[in-house]
Amino acid sequence: MTKDVWRGLVAGLLAGAILAALGFVDVGSGNQLVRVAGWLGLAGTGTARWNGFLLLLVLGGLFGVLFGIIQSLLRGRTQLTLGWSLVEGLIVGLLFWVIIWLFAGILINHQQLGFGEFLYSFVPLLLYGLLLGSIFFQRAPSKS
Known about the structure:
Layout: H1 2-26, H2 31-39, H3 48-74, H4 82-108, H5 115-139
């Protein structure tokens, strides 16, 4: 179980780092990361980009650990395949969106739920889930 959790942590950190790097590529100077910091109400500071970057790493690692725990619980019942790993990664990405953005962002920090804000949060977190599932599957030991 600890190997799956460790692999999930590493996969989550890598997926969070890739998502944070895409924040610099997509908008330019990391302005997308200000939105990430706004999910938890940290966007009003001068270091909002760094806060967003660190949040993606920390939360990516935490949800990676959750993914690793799920994988270790399901390992006895099913064999690890790329398809199931991607589906479970999408589910964890959806949980990431519901818990962090929907719950913390809207209910606690009273952010607006517009279509643009929905797309700027939902699509990257689904991408995070796909990256998480893919990286976890690639780091799994092969059965050859």
